[in-house]
Amino acid sequence: MQLSILLSGKLCKSLLISGLILYVIHILLSNHPCCNSITIFNNLMSFKGHDITQDDTPTNFSHLVFGITSSSRTWKNRMSYVESWWKPNITRGFVFLENFPKDHQLLPWPYSSCPPFKVSEDTSRYKMYDKHPIQQTIRMARVVEETFKMENKSARWYIMTDDDTIFFLDNLVEVLSKYDHRKYFYVRINSETHALNAEHSFNMAFGGGGYAFSYALVEAMVENSDSCIKKYQTYYGGDHILQSCVADLGVSLTQEKGFHQEKCSNMSLIFEKRFLYAIY
């Protein structure tokens, strides 16, 4: 009898110690900046309850949200590119400028033919982490997060692009419809430049041709945005930072050849080829 009580006491003590050890390990891992597994799990659980999981209707224009990176300096010369494919009151998205436009050639803003503009959020809090060769790298990398926060109802895909990119929306919808927006997808073709492909292991999309993130992936990226930007403080451009953030989540580039860069002086050739997008 005494032996049984003694063994029971030792068992309880062992279980208590084991529980405390596991709890300490859990706390350490959950706070470790390099550990994404818990964050990813939480993202998946929170995403599971989102209303879009119940929507099985075919993907259409209204499910796409565009984040267009521009500047007050370049917009007036590139506005016509966006006007060529934008569908007012149908397509969704924003043009992001570095500051409020003061040039009389930009105002009043052409809302009837272009996306509304937004001034990018202040990035001064990242100043000590900004060692990038390009001055506005962090601003460009944050366009996806800012777009998501302003436009996420019924969204399925977030397309990040420059202001000189042209899309054929029917083609774009057809391509993205092949993939489940409730899973992690990073869609685009790699660069046409071999040197860049070799440098980035043929696994990086470039903004000049545009690229698409599924809703689920953007939701997870936004959760880790600040830590990711601080982690990759010397990378060349915003595309490079985003690709690295995606890689941290265990996601590789899904290649679609319709996404590509095209340097072409004759615009008619582009429309004849019916590219998903062109002009860079």
Which residues sit in consecutive blocks of at least 5 with pLDDT less than 50?
A: 30-53, 193-198, 272-280
Write down the CATH class.
Alpha Beta
What are the secondary-structure elements, in order, as H or E? HHEHEEHHEEHEHEHHHHE
CATH topology: Spore Coat Polysaccharide Biosynthesis Protein SpsA, Chain A
- Helical content, roughly? 25-40%
Strand percentage lies at 5-15%
SSE diagram, text form:
Elements: H1 2-30, H2 37-48, E1 64-69, H3 75-83, E2 92-97, E3 117-119, H4 137-141, H5 143-150, E4 157-162, E5 166-167, H6 169-176, E6 186-187, H7 194-199, E7 211-214, H8 215-223, H9 225-231, H10 238-248, H11 267-273, E8 277-278
Parallel strand pairs: 1-2, 1-4, 2-3
Antiparallel strand pairs: 4-7, 5-8, 6-7
Helix pairs in contact: 2-8
Pfam family, one: DUF604
InterPro entries: DUF604
Characteristics of this structure?
280 residues; single chain; Spore Coat Polysaccharide Biosynthesis Protein SpsA, Chain A; DUF604; two-stranded antiparallel sheet; 8 strands; six-stranded mixed beta sheet
Describe this entry's structure for a reader:
With 280 residues, the protein is α/β, with parallel strands linked by helices. The chain has one domain (57-278): Spore Coat Polysaccharide Biosynthesis Protein SpsA, Chain A, CATH 3.90.550.50. 40% of the residues lie in helices and 11% in strands. Strand 1, helix 3 and strand 2 form a beta-alpha-beta unit. The protein starts with a helix and ends with a strand. Residues 30-53, 193-198 and 272-280 have low confidence and may be disordered.
